[in-house]
Amino acid sequence: MLYRRFGRTELQMPVFSCGGMRYQFKWQDVPQSEIPADNQKNLEATIQRAVEVGINHIETARGYGSSEMQLGRILPKFEREKLIVQTKVGPVADAKEFRQTFEQSLRYLQLDYVDLLGLHGINDAETLDYSIRAGGCLEVAQQLRSEGKVRFIGFSTHGSTETIVQTINTNQFDYVNLHWYYINQWNWAAIEAATRHDMGVFIISPSDKGGKLYNPPEKLVKLCAPLSPMVFNDLFCLSHPKVHTLSLGTAKPEDFDEHLKTLDLLDRSSEILPPILARLEEEAIATLGEDWVKTWDMNLPGWEETPGQVNIRVILWLLNLAIAYDLVDYGTMRYNLLGNGSHWFPGNKADRLDELDLRQCLARSPHADKIPQFLAKAHQLLAGEEVKRLSRS
After folding, report:
1. What is the pLDDT of residue 391?
2. 200-203 and 245-248: which strand pairing?
3. pLDDT > 90 in the chain, percent
4. For 347, which DSSP code?
5. Domain boundaries, the chain
6. pTM above the 0.70 mark?
7. Domain 3-268, CATH 3.20.20.100 — does that match?
8. Which of 18, 205, 331, 348 lies most in the core, judged by the most C-beta atoms within 10 Å?
9. Helices in the chain by DSSP H: which ranges?
């Protein structure tokens, strides 16, 4: 395993982290007696495998259902100082509730402390206010740190780059969990801001949210050859020293194997990546047109400024991925979260275009005349059954 300094925490963080939202039994709390023995056995084997290969960062959240409770049956068996344990608790209006929720996490994990506590989902102005206002959740987290129950405090986010940078610039957090990978590089400015504040940088779900790369379309497989799309994406992310660790949402012990192939390639990333990156760009230009590829998101309105709160930017992005790389299954999954994802995936689908006049909000876009047609095309291609966030399913 390779390790990187996790910003001001000074922790030696493995470049892969064992994310805890894929192997648990349920997305809701259940009595211990209801957890099937085979599910618990698989979870424990997954953690054992992680530690065997040097992945000593175990990451979970109060919002991951039975994950913490199930981890509590295996984590206390390890030498505590050799583990880096992270859990996450969502910021709420009542900071006392935040503390109670964290205390429940600690009881489930059967640990005296966690190394990393993330405020889970600082995604908009409201959740940021719940976090940083006087008497808010961040103050509670700091109290927990002074009590020895937390070593370092960070935040996770699915918010806009602007919100993430604003949160980072408070200089109140030791690390950030955010999205950034090949198909979605919008948050690079946030990574640079985190670097300026010497914060740890943890990438959320690069294999799932980065394109469902555990089940990639054949077209993407060919474009990424000789690497698998998963290894390509890992190498792309880790070739940037400002990125410290990637979360692997492993469901079983064997899921680490493909990712581990990345480690021997890192020293040669500067020669391995350019031909693949060139092919991916060439294919996007061939299928979408160079002008569109280079300017499609110029001067697009935010979803809050769009009639019907249509999330134009996300919808066009998903359409681009579906056309250029056959990421239709991925696009369908993400598209149908719109309207169902609250502040985790905000804005709406393009299902009411006949009722909306988008001309004014698109006035500054160089593609104002084409975009309504493309939105309609995206809806036709990607609409399917409504999808709920995993924690609500």
Report:
1. 47
2. parallel
3. 91
4. S
5. 3-268, 289-392
6. yes
7. yes
8. 18
9. 37-52, 67-71, 95-109, 125-132, 137-146, 161-168, 188-196, 218-224, 229-238, 256-260, 269-288, 290-295, 312-325, 328-335, 371-382
